[in-house]
Here is the input.
Amino acid sequence: MAKLYFRYGAMNSGKSTALIQVAHNYEERGMHVLLIKPSIDTKGADTVVSRIGVSRPVDLLVPAGMDIYQVLEEASKKTALSCVLADEAQFFTPDQIDQLFRVAVTLNIPVICYGLRSDFQMKGFPGSTRLLELAHSIEELKTICSCGKKAMINARLVNGEYVFEGAQVAIDGEASVEYRSVCPECYFRLRSEHQRKVHKA
Here is the structure.
């Protein structure tokens, strides 16, 4: 039986780079892979974009209402799929994660999901939470904070200022939004500094 994998990490931990490398490894051996990502992730449009400059077109952009199992079942009838690779998996719905789990179990196709575990408020994304519940294998991809400690949290900046409230989904690079990976100690320090500024205002 194939497995559902969840490889998570904070921003800048090399998730997209790892996905592109895995795709290359399969194809170098003559195997066929299918790359998918949620259509809500507009960064890079229909491309997986790594921060180190490598990129690769996706085969399928997935809207929230799509039945991924049904689509991949049909695709597998036309071409033998050796692996499904999913970028920005935190943005899939819980039902779609269930569908990816079913792809691995009933179609016997490995599914490797890359994404964030939690948002800028340290709350789990619904898709990631479901992956943590279902994945056969869970692996953390690590990165470091500017202070040198392990980064675990994706701090959000808007117009260069850290923010700690707002919608869960705000795409990096749009509407002056950016993210920095920080350790828990730096996160709480930044949040305290933000609260002091708000109270002074």
Observations:
- The CA atoms of residues 121 and 165 lie 7 Å apart.
- The first strand starts at residue 4 and ends at 8.
- The radius of gyration is 18 Å.
- The mean pLDDT is 92.
